[in-house]
Design brief:
18% strand, 13 helices, alpha+beta, 58% helix
Length: 387
């Protein structure tokens, strides 16, 4: 019997019992949807995080003093780190929540005090105006950079260079508007207002530096730069438990470990669903063999060989399983599209995972269809015709 003829017979059998065939495929459909949708979401999220980390640079180190009893660290202290050949630049940062007011509107914003070096370390881009300069910090000028979301909340538009806003009871001149980064996080650049570091210290009444960023000369110098920062903080605090140091590589590795674990977990859960679907296919194929016993007897009586019967039922179970896989992938694509539209997300369906899920579906059809097909092929013509 030709393969094409067997496939036509398989489709004819499936179409003759549409509801039963759909219910049989349901386990495969759900399994394929689970693995495809969730793994695609995890991979898309991982790629977005990786892109963000790569934009920040792989040579950036952040340090935070967590103990309030540590010795006071000044700007001149952390600037001394730049004497190390492994360190290119250092920038302190101070952050807090505040309310900004302008044009009769008010908005809760994250206020960050930075230096000129911070803009290079964190790769800040300004679409209009200028950056915060050392002269702004030297003179404690009340100027600021404002994010797109904060600008729209206060003014309704972003053409606001030179305008004045009021923060914590003080008037600030807007010297620039930041590029939109599109992040939905609370402290994204879209909802942050940057001021000179010294000005922010005065507003927050905090002269102690508890957080700062360091950029290594290059990624090859990252470990050396981190060691220098560690030695500096240990000398200043006297306790290695009173501060934390992280770098972009550590964060990237942590994200990779977490997402890999999630991928394996989701894959395992979806795999169980697919196995359940495979068992359903085997069950229905056994029912099909019982229902078509006389048909099998007639085919054998007129000359059909054992391999012809075996191929017929194996192809039927494989087609049934593959159809479930294809429907599952189609529904996955529709789900991802719907999520992108409703959530303004940027998830993409993974072609590799889709192919793996489809291949696994086909394997399930072969494995779980083997026993029913073999049972049908071993039926004796006389016994089959008498049933």
């Amino acid at each position: 019997m030709k393969i094409t003829q067997a496939i036509k017979m398989a489709f004819a059998s499936i179409c003759s019992t549409k509801l039963r065939s759909f219910l049989t495929m349901l386990g495969i459909i759900i399994g394929v949807m689970s693995v495809t949708v969730f793994v695609s979401i995890v991979q898309s999220t991982t790629n977005n995080v990786s892109d963000t980390l790569s934009q920040l640079g792989g040579n950036v180190i952040s340090a935070t003093v967590t103990s309030r009893r540590s010795n006071k660290i000044t700007t001149s202290d952390i600037k001394s780190l730049e004497n190390n050949p492994a360190i290119e630049s250092v920038s302190p940062i101070i952050s807090g929540s505040s309310t900004a007011k302008a044009s009769g509107n008010s908005s809760s914003v994250t206020l960050k005090g930075i230096t000129e070096e911070y803009e290079d370390i964190q790769n800040i881009s300004v679409q209009k105006g200028r950056y915060i300069l050392d002269v702004d910090n030297d003179n404690r000028l009340q100027v600021c950079l404002i994010g797109v979301t904060a600008a729209k909340d206060l003014f309704g538009h972003t053409d606001i260079e030179g305008e004045t806003i009021r923060i914590s009871g003080r008037n600030f001149k807007i010297i620039g508007v930041l590029e939109e980064d599109g992040s939905s996080q609370r402290d994204s650049n879209d909802s942050v207002i940057y001021t000179p570091f010294t000005t922010a210290q005065r507003i927050m009444q905090n002269s102690t530096i508890s957080s700062f960023y360091v950029s290594a000369t290059n990624e090859g110098m990252l470990n050396m730069a981190e060691s220098a920062v560690d030695s500096f903080l240990l000398e200043k605090t006297g306790d290695e438990d009173s501060y934390t140091i992280t770098n972009q590589s550590d964060i990237a590795d942590s994200v990779s470990d977490v997402t890999n674990s999630m991928t394996y977990m989701i894959g395992g859960i979806a795999g169980i669903s697919l196995l359940v679907g495979g068992i359903g296919i085997m069950n229905i194929m056994l029912v099909s063999v019982t229902e078509r016993t006389k048909e099998i007897g007639i085919r054998k009586a007129i000359g059909a060989k054992k391999k012809d019967i075996l191929a017929q039922f194996m192809i039927e179970s494989t087609v049934l399983s593959c159809m479930g896989g294809v429907i599952g992938i189609a529904l996955s694509a529709a789900t991802i599209f719907g999520m992108n539209q409703l959530m303004s997300a940027d998830y993409t369906i993974s072609a590799g995972i889709s192919l793996i899920a489809l291949a696994f579906s086909a394997i399930l059809g072969i494995v779980f269809g083997l026993y029913p097909a073999n049972k049908a092929a071993n039926l004796k013509p006389i016994e089959a015709l008498n049933l």
